[in-house]
Amino acid sequence: xxxxxxxxxxxxxxxxxxxxxxxxxxxxxxxxxxxxxxxxxxxxxxxxxxxxxxxxxxxxxxxxxxxxxxxxxxxxxxxxxxxxxxxxxxxxxxxxxxxxxxxxxxxxxxxxxxxxxxxxxxxxxxxxxxxxxxxxxxxxxxxxxxxxxxxxxxxxxxxxxxxxxxxxxxxxxxxxxxxxxxxxxxxxxxxxxxxxxxxxxxxxxxxxxxxxxxxxxx
Length: 218
Description:
The chain is of the alpha/beta class. It contains eight helices and ten strands.
């Protein structure tokens, strides 16, 4: 079963719906942009998922170029289980975070024209998962742009897959089942594709997305 991560949460009620729908991960943003939250506010949002009555999703924080010490401090305040690193994620930073943080560390790879075969496999060194997103200049995320799924699948087949692959970038209820069928990720990550406005999740779209993932490539 492909796991679902619902990211860019800004309201506890949306986190609660994510939990009730069975999302494996709920995410908040510390990297900048319109969905950015302060650590204490993020904790309150993420706590909403625990009120859903189902098994609590794992709590993900999205980071940019913050240093390891700041990331660890934010993780403690927000009660995170996973660090998603869009910025600096070299071996020294990951090693420092391993000493300060007990949860998972995900490295983000942003794919655009000219990406080299093996880049996703190579990014897996030292981390628990690789999240693949589209490269869009001026943003840390995919900004609603999809990755070339066919190219990605071909590259993974030829150069090797990471132990765990999370697919992001432009995913929506209308296209995620196709993406799952082509790429076969371990998890999918959605934010803007299920929103009614920036940071506000549409609960009907959330449900449709989860149901589409469950259908896989069918």
